[in-house]
Amino acid sequence: MPRRLPYVLLSVFLVLFVLGVTLGEPESVFEKAVAICLSCIGVG
Amino acid sequence: MNLRRWVQIAATLTTNAWWLTPFGGPVIYGGRLKSFCSPGLNCYSCPAAALSCPIGTLQFMFASLRPSLEVGKVHLGLYVLGFLGTIGALVGRMPCAWLCPFGLFQGLLYRIPSPKLAIPRQLYFLKYVFLALFVVLLPALVLDEFGYGQTWYCKYVCPAGTLEAGLPLLAMQPSLRSMAGWLLAGKLTILALFLAWMVVSKRPFCRTSCPLGAFYSLFNRISVLRLTYDEDKCVRCKACERHCPMGVAFYEAANHQNCIRCLRCMLHSCRYGAIGYEIAGVRGPGMAEGDGPYKDPLRP
User: Fold this and answer.
1) How far is the CA of B133 from the CAs of B127, B200, B224, B281, in angstroms?
2) Does the pLDDT value for residue B118 go beyond 60?
3) Domains, chain B, ranges and CATH?
4) Confidence of residue B120 (pLDDT cuts 50, 70, 90)
5) What is the pLDDT of residue B293?
6) Which residues in chain A touch residue B27, judged by CB atoms under 8 angstroms apart?
7) Which of B78, B86, B183 is opposite residue A43, by nearest beta carbon?
8) Higher pLDDT residue, A3 or B204?
9) What's the average model confidence in pLDDT over A27-40?
10) Strand B225-229 and strand B275-279: pairing?
């Protein structure tokens, strides 16, 4: 019998993704990712 | 070389597609692709990285939550959570086996001949501690005077960041070397311990310490794609467990938190057709008893 839960979860996370895009989060991701992360490399 | 290895290599090269740094290009890639997250763990400060690290990005979002809200930006990490959750809901931990560069690296290190050691199961829960504490709670709650948190996992733990970004950047940038101190010494020690562990144990970082794997694993039992176990066909030969890159005893727990859906057990190990798959409740054809191990089309 086909399960519903995976589709419910899929829909919820797709909505979150679209909401994040609408709120401009990709721009924040970009701004963070194009600068050297000193914490990541162990000096900041 | 089997199909999965080719996919892993292709994914690693795609995720790390910036190769101009040694030829006078910028130290790290700064193009628009960095707006997108990689489905696997891959430090965005790696000189070759073309995509963002989802775990680093999540920490950054949580660490800068308060200042963002103060300037009217409601950035809660929904973009990254939605991306990871969509993948998890579809295939669970499958990206760990097929798309994660650090997973590929661990798989290769384990091929070095050496005495091999099991990993105590009690350590499996650590990755959830890292996810909850170091990725979410500490970055969001421990703030400095300006309201900013720290990226705790990147800063104090992540051996992938030390290997992929720390070592290359410190080698290329003398100015960064002058800033090195106890923090770097600690991260190098963690990296060295993991590297040694990766030689003697199967994917120790994935099994005990990866917050991304921990997140995906939450979906393993409920994702659209799941593996199925036919108890009547299983003879408990334990071939699946011996061949599993994560040391999962499939006959004890199908879709275990550490199952990364590499499909090796189903395609190569089980001779009795006891392991199959289903997509949202609809069973795939699977292997029939007596078919023998699957013949990989890319392997002569």
Assistant:
1) 10, 28, 28, 34
2) yes
3) 3-216 (no CATH), 224-283 (3.30.70.20)
4) very high
5) 54
6) 36
7) B183
8) B204
9) 90
10) antiparallel
Closest-CA distance of chain A to residue B21, Å: 13
Distance to chain B for A5, nearest Cα, Å? 7
CA distances to B150, B270, B283 from B67, in Å: 13, 54, 49
> C-alpha dihedral over B80, B83, B86, B90, to 10 degrees?
-120
Q: Chain B within 8 Å of A22 (Cβ-Cβ)? A: no
Would you call B281 and A3 a contact, using CB atoms and an 8 Å cutoff? yes
Provide, for chain A, the percentages of residues in helix, strand and coil under a 3-state DSSP scheme, each rounded to the nearest 5.
70, 0, 30
CA angle, residues B11, B277, B123, in degrees to nearest 5: 65
- Contact between B96 and B123 under an 8 Å Cβ cutoff? The reply is no
User: Smallest Cβ distance to A29: which of B52, B150, B188?
Assistant: B52
Block residue for tokens 């920490």: B59
pLDDT of residue A27: 94
In this structure, are residues B51 and B34 in contact, taking their beta carbons and an 8 Å threshold? yes
Q: How far apart are CA B294 and CA B287, in angstroms?
A: 8
The closest CB to that of B154, out of A5, A25, A40, belongs to: A40
Using only the alpha carbons of chain B, give its radius of gyration.
20
CA gap B5, B16 in Å, rounded: 16
The reply to whether residue A28 touches residue B150, judged by beta carbons under 8 angstroms, is no
Closest alpha carbon to B59 in B175, B142, B164 = B142
Ramachandran quadrant class, B226 (left: phi over 0; alpha: psi -120 to 50; beta: rest): beta
B275-279 β-sheet, strand order: B225-229, B275-279, B282-283
Residue identified by tokens 């089980």 is B270
